[in-house]
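In the current project phase, the collection of sequences with tokenised folds has grown. One resulting record follows, to show the layout:
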Amino acid sequence: MDGPFQYFPFPTFNDESDDMKLNHDRYEVYVNGDFVGTKPLLAQNDTIEDLDEFLQEQGLTNFQSINEGDHFEITSADQEQQIKEALHIHLQNR
């Protein structure tokens, strides 16, 4: 018996998963309608709401956030610039 099935009774297939990029949930983050960056959720326990916690840890508490599909919108009347700066740095470091 010659050919690829000579030693194995079942055909083998190349697993192309090594060549494929892992898909992660990604969110576009906006502050008062302005795009500030993209937040990928890399770990299984990551959530988009982690950004709320991050901002609160930075002392930024006067904001509201809403998740709509792959958009995460943060609104703030008086801390807009500080929130944008904090998120810009945070999202670039991820």
Notes: Strands lie at 25-31, 34-41, 64-68, 71-75. The chain has one domain: 25-92. The mean pLDDT is 84.
